Amino acid sequence: MSNSWRIGFFPGGGSAVSRIPGSGRHLGLFHFFAGGGERLGGPRVVELGYLKLERYDLEPFRASEESLRVRVLGVLRLDNDLSPALAEAALGRVQVLGWVRADSRTAAVVRSKASGDG
Question: Which run of H or of E encompasses 8?
Fold first, then answer.
């Protein structure tokens, strides 16, 4: 993934075409996305508010064999088009202080990533 930085207040997150894969759709007080690089230890997203990740966001990470680290204070929503296998392959460590909204199998993957098993 490229070294891309977005930081600050970005209501809505834009359309899937205009946003950077991995940055998700977000609505919150603070959003940070870094595309990666050795200094950061890989790509990551930090959200204060609401973050929705879709298949569009995670497929590039599975293809590049990188993992996206996610931190959310608020709500993390994993879209219905995101399979548990894709979440397992593309997500690194996941830290959520708040709520995770996803189907039960995908939520189980997120729980394993939060506990350090994944």
Answer: strand 5-8
